[in-house]
């Protein structure tokens, strides 16, 4: 029994129409390498022109629009693992090279304005969080999980690791971000850079949402696809 | 106080069956059945319902925002997920409890009784931390584990966890390091309180 879905997109949907469904979808374009100027072409046409698998693209959009979205089993079978990995890596780069540095820059202004009383602890809080993010994304996913999957794709694969482990270790990295936003909005003294604090809070909400959807993509698309690969290991 | 329940579920078979079970309970009345989420808010207002049983599938992509708005609008509202399909666990976090489609009548009754009891601790005005919660917060901020806190305060670990849940609900802060910052900002602890745990970490 399924409730009626409000957002059923298909390959025939106009690409531009899909983009207006949820403005956050726009940030996916650079990660897939899809350029602007898509005019009134369909999703399938735009994906084809940009050498992107339309099935994967629609799944990712589906999860961003609707956190209850479950990818279609048949479409999951058609996912190109290399393409999925390069999308995930592009997302990681976007977080580590663009979003976090942007937030850090503004946060530094706030830390400086806080002075000796609150500055160091904010700085330490963020520093510890950043280390956690790096452990999660860089040292675990990029250096352990992804190389394992790449080996599987090439017909190898270590017995020492199973994607099952990833599922159990997949921790939530948004919580401290939400905490940071609460601290900035609710608990730091009101007179310290209020405008910048509001701006950075909006950026933090956006990043937190983005990380949430990203984790769902890893859980609902990556993990089942890798499990299929593991089953078919020679 | 009688509990007024709204059921929001698209399947009439399920909704009627559940209403039957809930109406058989002494302190519970189903005041409304809805098959779409659009008018939930005005229905809560008009019926003064305090419990909403809803199938998460009905909310689609608006799940998270919809529920948090509803929670802000009606701080005393208890949210119960009616789970009819296999769902991602993360989707269920905004709810105070769940009823599963396969639950027996007795199990549903027990669950609702339990959930509505917790409800009393979720009053709209108790936004300030209690003395006990402040003590737990300070201990957490200093880096103590639940077990140590329980021993020091002479309470059960279960009670520590329940205090921690309340602290997070009231402050909006979930991580230990976030709580440390909160405690420092509010002068509940001093920078020097943190040094011992840092030293042990380095050893």
Structure, explained:
The complex is a heterodimer of chains A (234) and B (203). With 234 residues, chain A is an all-alpha fold. Helices cover 71% and strands 0% of the residues of chain A. Chain A is globular. Chain B is α/β, with parallel strands linked by helices. Chain B folds into two domains: 120 residues, Response regulator (Rossmann fold, 3-Layer(aba) Sandwich), CATH 3.40.50.2300; 72 residues, Orthogonal Bundle (Arc Repressor Mutant, subunit A). Helix content of chain B is 50%, strand content 13%. Chain B contains nine helices and five strands; from the N terminus they run E-H-E-H-E-H-E-E-H-H-H-H-H-H. In chain B, strand 1, helix 1 and strand 2 form a beta-alpha-beta unit. Classes of the chains: A mainly alpha (234), B alpha/beta (203).
Give the helix/strand layout.
The complex is a heterodimer of chains A (234) and B (203).
Chain A: H1 15-21, H2 28-32, H3 43-49, H4 54-65, H5 73-77, H6 81-153, H7 163-169, H8 175-187, H9 194-231
Helix pairs in contact in A: 4-9, 6-9, 7-9, 8-9
Chain B: E1 3-8, H1 12-23, E2 28-34, H2 40-47, E3 51-54, H3 63-73, E4 78-83, E5 97-100, H4 105-118, H5 131-141, H6 146-153, H7 157-171, H8 176-185, H9 191-202
Parallel strand pairs in B: 1-2, 1-3, 3-4, 4-5
Helix pairs in contact in B: 5-7, 5-8, 6-7
């Amino acid at each position: 029994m399924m409730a009626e879905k409000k957002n059923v997109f298909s390959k025939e949907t106009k690409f531009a129409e899909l983009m207006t469904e949820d403005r956050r979808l726009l940030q996916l374009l650079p990660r897939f390498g899809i350029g602007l100027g898509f005019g009134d072409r369909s999703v399938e046409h735009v994906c084809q022109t940009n050498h992107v698998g339309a099935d994967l693209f629609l799944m990712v959009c589906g999860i961003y629009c609707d956190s209850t979205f479950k990818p279609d089993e048949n479409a999951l079978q058609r996912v190109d693992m290399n393409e999925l990995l390069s999308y995930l890596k592009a997302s990681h780069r976007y977080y580590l090279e663009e979003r976090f540095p942007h937030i850090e820059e503004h946060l530094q202004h706030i830390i400086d304005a806080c002075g000796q009383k609150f500055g160091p602890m904010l700085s330490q809080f963020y520093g510890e969080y950043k280390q956690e993010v790096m452990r999660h994304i860089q040292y675990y996913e990029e250096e352990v999980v992804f190389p394992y999957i790449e080996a599987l794709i090439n017909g190898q694969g270590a017995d020492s690791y199973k994607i099952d482990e990833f599922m159990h270790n997949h921790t939530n990295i948004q919580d401290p971000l939400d905490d940071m936003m609460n601290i900035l909005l609710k608990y730091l003294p009101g007179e310290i850079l209020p405008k910048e604090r509001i701006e950075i809070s909006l950026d933090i909400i956006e990043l937190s949402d983005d990380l949430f959807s990203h984790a769902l993509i890893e859980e609902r698309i990556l993990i089942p696809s890798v499990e299929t690969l593991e089953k078919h290991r020679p | 106080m009688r509990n007024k329940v709204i059921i929001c579920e698209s399947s009439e078979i399920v909704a009627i069956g559940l209403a039957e079970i809930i109406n058989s309970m002494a302190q519970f009345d189903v005041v409304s059945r809805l098959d779409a989420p659009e008018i939930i808010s005005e229905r809560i207002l008009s019926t003064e319902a305090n419990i909403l049983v809803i199938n998460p599938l009905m909310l689609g992509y608006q799940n998270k925002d919809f529920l948090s708005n509803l929670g802000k609008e009606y701080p005393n509202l208890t949210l119960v997920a009616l789970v009819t399909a296999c769902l991602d666990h993360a989707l269920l976090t905004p709810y105070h409890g769940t009823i599963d489609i396969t639950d027996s009548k007795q199990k549903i009754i027990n669950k609702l009784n339990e959930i509505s009891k917790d409800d009393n601790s979720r009053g709209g005005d108790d936004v300030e931390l209690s003395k006990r919660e402040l003590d737990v917060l300070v201990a957490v901020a200093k880096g103590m584990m639940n077990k140590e806190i329980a021993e020091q305060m002479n309470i059960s670990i279960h009670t520590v966890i329940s205090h921690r849940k309340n602290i997070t609900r009231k402050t909006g802060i979930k991580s230990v390091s976030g709580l440390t910052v909160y405690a420092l900002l509010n002068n509940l602890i001093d920078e020097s309180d943190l040094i011992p745990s840092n030293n042990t970490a380095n050893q």
